[in-house]
Specification:
alpha/beta, 2-enoyl-CoA Hydratase, Chain A, domain 1, Rossmann fold, 6-stranded parallel beta sheet, 6-stranded mixed beta sheet, globular, LarA-like, LarA-like_N, Nickel-dependent lactate racemase, LarA_C
Length: 432
């Protein structure tokens, strides 16, 4: 038997699998760089892509807005890299009072002072003004126009009143826009609720029953309308500078890109492919995957990334065991619960999604779609009552999940293990 220990919540889960059944461990490719995280950060800032250095862009007396991640993306280690960005501003003569941090909450919940402290770190917390973006606060939004896709773009007024907007975050695969980071700091990060929902609604095919567009998937921006629409919205805002990090399998910053938000992000996507793409030769009967622990499995809504990636490694009809604690429950908003609990069929869920699109609804639909095509077992503290109409099985332990799988599917199952399922994207080997 081969022993495994995977992260779940703030702890780990241990289990054993017959070694001959394990056909692969799909994980990030370890970084071979000997540079420290601080060296990676500084090197990116001193060598921006298609842009002058940040210290050469800003000028004394200007008001600066730095758009940062929210607590669901604490894994990006903003507290480590933000002091470097502030140092560049200080070098240019920007005073502390002229720097505003806005957390790109998108449609996520408000945050606590303790969470602000985690995001800014001890060096910066208490010295600077930090606020959450509120996507439904119409008095603090400014309308900029419509994209070619018809999306009305309204953006945080306080950000737009600043002389310079700097966007900071991290790049990983994303199931709607291909890759996160870059433009996502603007839309959905500091956009209105209507802007966010109109953009994300582009992910659906035109006709009822056709579901999500084929172009909408992790690792794809080609003909992806959600991506293209976000880039247009970002062009309305014209951020002055971008800084994004790429993480390794140990949660350390292995690469970073800075400079022009389009061209630097393109380089960042290449880094992600080099580290987070796991090539496979076949699909498995069983995939055991974890989001990678807290905060990536903070709620079911965030865990959708885990489900989208892990199903790329499983045969249709195969089993996916998803380890995700979900200490804050379902997450998202009431639409997540509604999609899971109030409908019995995929077509009814899709009909509701089209009538009033929300991201939370789409996450619920995609989760139920996963359970329709795969035997989906979730090891979690979630209340099973929310999932009785979904086909998703909720269990408390990995042993319970394995016993249920073996009872239904038999043993000797070809198995993949995914220790960082929210980040790792399985892909078939390219055909030469």
């Amino acid at each position: 038997m081969k022993k495994f220990e995977l992260k779940q919540g703030r702890g780990t889960v241990k289990f054993s699998i017959n070694e001959k059944d394990v056909i692969g461990v799909l994980d990030n490719i370890p970084s071979t760089s000997s540079k420290t995280e601080e060296e990676v950060i500084n090197e990116a800032l001193q060598n921006p892509i298609s842009s002058p250095k940040l210290s050469e862009i800003v000028h004394a007396g200007e008001k600066i807005c730095i758009v940062i991640p929210d607590i669901t993306r604490a894994w990006q280690k903003s507290s480590l890299y933000l002091p470097f960005i502030v140092a560049e501003l200080t070098k240019a003569g920007i005073v502390d009072e002229d720097i505003l941090f806005i957390s790109a909450t998108g449609s996520h919940r408000k945050q606590t002072q303790n969470e602000y402290k985690q995001l800014l770190g001890n060096t910066l917390y208490g010295k600077y003004n930090i606020i959450d973006h509120d996507c439904k606060d119409k008095d603090n939004l400014v309308y900029l126009g419509k994209t070619n896709f018809g999306t009305p773009v309204s953006i945080n007024k306080k950000a737009m009143e600043c002389d310079r907007i700097i966007i900071a975050g991290g790049i990983v695969y994303h199931f709607l826009v291909g890759w996160s980071g870059g433009k996502k700091s603007i839309l959905p990060g500091i956009a209105s609720y209507e802007t966010i929902m109109a953009n994300h609604g582009l992910s659906l095919n035109e006709n009822l029953g056709e579901g999500t567009r084929d172009e909408i998937r992790c690792g794809n921006i080609i003909n992806n309308p959600v991506h293209l629409d976000m880039e247009e919205a970002c062009a309305f805002v014209k951020p002055s500078f971008m800084f994004n990090v790429i993480m390794d399998s140990h949660g350390n910053i292995s690469a970073a890109v800075a400079g022009d938000c389009i061209k630097a992000h393109a380089q960042g996507r290449k880094y992600v492919d080099e580290s987070d793409c796991a090539y496979i030769k076949e699909k498995a009967d069983l995939v055991i995957a974890t989001a990678g622990g807290y905060p990536k499995d903070i709620n079911f809504y965030q865990s959708s990334k885990l489900l989208m990636n892990s199903r790329e490694a499983a045969k249709i009809g195969g089993t996916i065991i998803a380890l995700t604690e979900c200490s804050e429950g379902l997450g998202g908003d009431d639409d997540v619960r509604s999609m899971l609990s109030n409908y019995d069929t995929l077509i009814d869920r899709e009909k509701s999604l089209r009538e009033r699109y929300t991201i939370s609804k789409h996450v619920g639909c995609l989760s139920c779609e996963t359970a329709h095509n795969f035997n989906l077992i979730v090891v979690s503290d979630l209340d099973p009552k929310f999932f009785k109409n979904t086909g998703i099985k909720i269990v408390k332990t990995i042993d319970e999940a394995l016993n249920l799988t073996y009872a239904e599917k038999g043993k000797n199952l070809k198995t993949y293990i995914m220790p960082h399922g929210s980040n790792t994207l399985p892909k078939f080997l390219p055909i030469n």
